[in-house]
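Why does this matter for the project? Reviewers at the last site visit asked to see concrete outputs rather than summary tables. In response, this paragraph embeds two records directly. Each consists of the residue sequence and, immediately after it, the corresponding structure tokens. Nothing has been edited or filtered.
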Amino acid sequence: MLAAVGLIAAIALVRALSDHLPLGLSGRQLLARQVDAYDLSHDGKRIILLSHGKLSSIGINGKEAHELTSGAIFSSDYGLPELQLSDDGAKVAVGVRFPYGHSSLKILDVNTGNVQEISKAVGWGNLVWLGDSKQLAWVHHDGRFSEQHPPKKPSLYIWQNASRPTEIYANKSSPRPSIDGLRWIQDKGYIGFIDNQFSVEALAKEQPLDRIRIIRPDGTEVRAIKPPPGRFHPPHGSFQSWDISPAASQVAYSYGWGTWVTGMETGAQPCKIFDKSSLEMHWSPDGNRLAFVIPSPESVKKRFSSRGQSVLWPPHELHVINKDGSGHRLVCTEPQGIKSIEWLNNNEVLYLSGKDLYKRGL
């Protein structure tokens, strides 16, 4: 009995210590706890953290910590936070959603410590700094959540220094539209996003209205990527996640029960590289691999999911795969989930599991 207790204690100790070793015995290194949101600097040397309404910074080794603000810039009762550090490192955009149907979007000037609120709304998401670090884009929801006062259709807004936010795109052609997955395509100067426009009639005719749209910052459309051919039923008749390669030559996305890759040129045909859809995906810096997250089989076993519903809750699995579908590998399973993946280099990623920030070797 004593031997068994000792073995259990030893295993627990090894697991605890492994989180703090370089890449740990488990292949991961714990960088910070109680993290609500984070972002990696453009040069890959520092990480910006939001925790309990406060902003701070650490090195990629989890050390060299210092505070960016003297106190909290938000109260601690928020949910669904996001933050984005501008490419030049001079500004941090931080947005949070509060429990009673409103949200707040603020910008911190790192050099002066000044904080400016630039938007209030029912909801928002997908903060993205544009290339010059002077413009910020996001998905904006306004209105009220009630039968008498339905919310305004989601829109894309852009804010520039000392100016009011400007709407550049609005999804108004569907009874249940959604805009998600905002991306800044650096080399082209374009903005890309998922534009899902749910329609039973369109799905029945195998002519879904969903698109991945590529537009200029003035709202002019450059390219619209259609779903792959075939019949898909809700909730799988929509884009789940997507990303564009660093060279802006290929697009990977989840639609239906699969993960697909297609070229950016008009008429390019999609190729399925994996037989499951992902909750999140990101290209490696060299553009050769994808890291993506899917629910673990344990997710389905632990919780009931009625027919027609996607399983989103943890545990989650992290996978990597080559862009041609070869070299697929399950990296790890995280009981507390995986979100906000950032490639640190071609061999390491950062991600949040619960509220713990980890670095993991691939």
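We now turn to the second protein, recorded in exactly the same manner.
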Amino acid sequence: MVIPMNAYEILGTVVWFLCVLGVGVVCLFWPRAVRDFGLRTSPRFNPFLGFMKSPSYIWSIRITGLIAFLMVLLASAGLILGRK
């Protein structure tokens, strides 16, 4: 049984969709900018500072962007099908 979504649920999903899409675009296409921002704003005592300077951190940011895009794809499929 399909339960139709009301306007507030659709609006909330679209706002979430745009936020996650923005995170996905930034993480996937500008991972060095995300890393540089993280390094600039991190406190002096950061136990992950060595990891943040490594190339594997760039790949983890890209994977985060890919996961965000997959979440957007799943949410858009839910919006198109009209299911909760």
